[in-house]
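In this supplementary section we document a worked example of the pipeline. Step one takes a protein sequence of length 186 as its only input; no multiple sequence alignment statistics are reported here. Step two produces a three-dimensional model, which step three serialises into structure tokens for compact storage. The input and output of this example are shown verbatim.
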Amino acid sequence: MKNINYLENPNLKMNQDVKELIQALQNQDGIVRSYAASALGGIGSGTKDAVPALIQVLPHYRRNIVRGNVATALGGIGEGAKDAVPALIQTLKDQDAGVRGHVSEALCRIGKEGVVDTVIPMLQDIDPFVRSRTAHALGEIGPGAKDADIYLIPLLKDPDNNVRKDVEWALGKINTPDARRALRYE
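The serialised model returned by step three reads:
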């Protein structure tokens, strides 16, 4: 295997060997796996051949950072990672809040409107990071996440400032009449 330095160049370009990154997902070193996943996600939709390997790593690696980076990589691949949706849904139950937050974002980037109902319960997660990331991801969907507005509006009073900021941003992007009223735009 070639020596690819993920630390120096996490934004690898399409012309580099994606197969080597896929092989690096099986490396015994968690840091190598983590950076390989990040690099694949950074390349984006051109790495959909990596989806099966990323799915395989997602539930089986004990390091939270690897699972979080795998979820982020799948989200970076976008709609080309639709096969990962069932594994990601299972990972919404992860014990680590960081992983749950990244999974929620990934689901929204992959499934768009089709996963809104799946991620809405994450707005009630005990951890503010998860609530914040979920709100932001729903905002990225925009008007297609209109069914989430009634779940987001009460979070404008969340005790966590980051949650409130992401909820406000998301409601602005979703832009329903109820969202505009809650934001006092009407």
